[in-house]
Design brief:
Largest sheet: 7 strands, mixed
Distance between the termini: 40 Å
Order of helices and strands: EEEEEEEEEEE
Low-confidence stretches: none
Structural class: mainly beta
Strand content: over 45%
Radius of gyration: 14 Å
Mean pLDDT: 96
Number of strands: 11
Length: 117
């Protein structure tokens, strides 16, 4: 059973930075696609960034140029570096790991990011 644990959230002023971590246990981390999602109050959960098992990345237009997704397979950990944060980035951030076409699809518990203006 895969378990994911996010960390690194908190309160930051607009223009600041945070780095979120997603530590995985219980399976071969290298096999999985890793994604970061967020959900703001009253809004649907949305994808922020994705990194494949091979290291290819894709980020949402709303965070392009500000957020970077990465992974360290040796540490079984994924990261989301968030720079130049804006109040509209305020949300609960979740990491997700999955293998396409299978039932191997796991979510973390979420970490709150709050950006003050």
């Amino acid at each position: 059973q895969v378990q994911l644990a996010e960390s690194g959230g908190g309160l930051v002023q607009a223009g600041g930075s945070l780095r979120l971590s997603c530590a995985a246990s219980g399976s071969d981390f290298r096999l999985y696609v890793l994604g970061w999602y967020r959900q703001a109050p009253g809004k649907q959960r949305e994808v922020v960034a994705v990194i494949t098992s091979g290291g290819s990345t894709n980020v949402a237009d709303s965070v392009k140029g500000r957020f970077t997704i990465s992974r360290d397979n040796g540490k079984n950990t994924g990261y989301l570096q968030m720079n130049t944060l804006k109040p509209e980035d305020t949300a609960v951030y979740y990491c997700r790991m999955w293998v396409a076409g299978t039932l191997m699809d796991y979510w973390g518990q979420g970490t709150q990011v709050t950006v003050s203006s």
